[in-house]
Amino acid sequence: MSTFPTQARVVIVGGGIMGCSTAYHLAKLGWKDVVLLEQGRLSGGTTWHAAGLVGQLRSYQNLTRLIRYSTELYSKLEAETGLATGWKQCGSLSVARTEERMVLLRRSAAMANAQGVDCEALTPKQAGEKYPIMRTDDLVGAVWLPGDGKANPADITQALARGARNGGVRIFEKTRVTSVDTKDGCVTGVQTTEGPITAEIVVNCAGQWARQLGRSVGVTVPLYSCEHMYIVTEKMEGVPRDLPVMRDPDGYIYFKEEVGGLLMGGFEPEAKPWNKDIIPDDFEFGMLPDDWDQFQILMDNALIRVPALEKTGVKTFMNGPESFTPDLNYILGEAPQLKGFFVGACPASPRSICGRSTSAASPPLTATTSGCASASRRRSACITRCRGRSASSNRRARCAARRCPTASRPEGRGSVTRWAGSGPTGSPGSARRPTCSTAGAAAPGSMRSHQSIAPRART
Ligand SMILES: Cc1cc2nc3c(=O)[nH]c(=O)nc-3n(C[C@H](O)[C@H](O)[C@H](O)COP(=O)(O)OP(=O)(O)OC[C@H]3O[C@@H](n4cnc5c(N)ncnc54)[C@H](O)[C@@H]3O)c2cc1C
């Protein structure tokens, strides 16, 4: 490892996919003297447990362009760095249970097509041919994106880190930024557990910790963590390795093939916030306890969409925190409150399924369960506990008997994440939970706006 620096042009805080992508792209752009600091180990924040869905269907042109670029990057990163990324271009299906949803899908597909993304509308029968274990008799239609895929976010992070190192970036793990130094409204450096570094630019890529780091220097970063859950099943008949990713926004759920079984997760309409005040520094590779009650609405909808789950064992229940902005848009760019202080926050962005957040068709969220356990559990313990239980027996084991709503729900209204306006008070309760998300490592070139992209008026 190189000697710890006392000076750098850029200090990136956080070694998740966002920080490593920023480092990689700065190196590609020829920036010298870039240092990345990670308080734990690379990808140990939220990136390591991301499901790894990569979808280009987005509500805004910029986001579609960004994710399309990500698919191109992931497909060549392994050849460039020698590290596998798990990228597989398996295509994706987004299905519609209602005419209204189909209109949204068609509209997003048309927009994506206009930007050169291959995307076509399918009948339910055509969708079923691509995903034979899916029930289709209740569908209105679907859209198909052959260029979409899946990847392993932790591996992508390592590959980006290697690419960054190859370009001269110095990366220090187990090094926490304890404060940001400022003078006359400008960043001047950081204090760390290994000593101070003076810097022209500090990039806050601290994931779910970004809000508290920003707040320490008066910068608003409205990112809040909620528990996000998925299951992985035992092997299933009819699940080949190249099964497309499937999203069912009306049921809040997504599916992806995982070792011959299905990974199924989603975004329940009533989110469960986690540690809304302070995120512990040592929450590394952490997991949260299973919550089958919270998961029930997703499980019920998954059984509607893939009835074979009824007889399939659940191998893993994964619950990890994941941060969200109130409008689900990314926060990218220089903070207006502090010169030289940039933020790169990519909350899970479930907008991808329908090109618009499910919140566009969902009632506003109310956060009903606050707090939650801080104890982390290891994946292996979870696997042992879940193994051998079928999805239906897990379902029966739960006590809550909430009915799963079907597609017709009252409409919500879009909200806007703004640097200046949202304030540290934007509560998780104001966040809206949408459907499926997509990994998109943002390039610094895309950090143009100091304001997250405001949603358009609903049409
Ligand atoms: C269960 C689950 C499934 C998901 N599925 C998907 C998916 O399919 N597709 C998708 O696009 N997204 C998905 N996501 C979301 C995705 O994981 C996140 O959007 C992404 O990982 C955020 O990356 P990040 O680099 O911003 O944050 P993180 O990965 O959390 O990285 C931030 C890093 O900053 C470090 N840090 C914080 N403070 C400091 C400090 N003061 N000093 C030094 N280091 C610090 C932390 O230790 C951490 O490693 C999923 C998330 C979860 C939980």
Quote the average pLDDT: 79
Instruction: Give the spatial strand order of the biggest sheet.
Output: 5-6-4-13-14-15-12-16-19
CATH topology: FAD/NAD(P)-binding domain
Give the H and E element order: EHEEHEHEHEEHEEEEHEEEEHEEEHEHH
Structure classification: alpha+beta
Give me the CATH architecture, please.
Answer: 3-Layer(bba) Sandwich
How many domains make up the coordinates?
A: 1
CATH-wise, what's the superfamily? FAD/NAD(P)-binding domain
Principal-axis shape equals globular
Largest sheet report? 9 strands, mixed
Strand content: 15-25%
Helix percent band: 10-25%
- Head-to-tail CA distance between termini: 54 Å
The number of distinct helices, counting runs of at least 4 residues, comes to: 10
Question: What is the CATH first-level class name?
Answer: Alpha Beta
The number of E-state strands comes to 19
Cα radius of gyration in angstroms: 21 Å
